[in-house]
Design a protein that fits this description.
Length: about 70
């Protein structure tokens, strides 16, 4: 339940962050951290399927970089 709330919060934060840069940056940092944890969990579990969390991590990084660049 807390993971769902966290992801929902970061998604709402990204949407609000389109107009309020600091909120968007904080939300993007939260998503990057979440997906870094997802990739680490897959690696620790010896799961070879890293495509889904890897792609989502890259998208989160892109959102963070673009929000910082467009401030």
């Amino acid at each position: 339940p807390s993971q769902v709330a966290g992801l929902l919060g970061t998604k709402v934060g990204l949407m609000v962050g389109l107009w309020v840069a600091p909120i968007g940056i904080a939300a993007a940092i939260g998503l990057v951290g979440y997906f870094l944890g997802a990739v680490a969990t897959h690696v620790r579990a010896n799961d070879k399927n890293l495509v889904a969390p890897g792609v989502l991590l890259l998208l989160s990084l892109a959102a963070l970089v673009l929000r910082i660049v467009t401030m």
